[in-house]
Amino acid sequence: DAAVSRSVKPYIDQEFYKSQCSNIEESALIHFLRTWKYNNAWIHPLVDLSECKKEFHASANSCDPLSTFILEPERLRWPNRFFDTVDYQKRHSDSIEVNETAIEHYMRLGHLEHFDPSYKFSQKYYLRRHGEKVRSGWPALAEYLHNGAKSRAAPLPAKPFFDVTSGLNCEQIA
Question: What distance lies between CA 12 and its chain's CA centroid?
Answer without folding.
Answer: 12
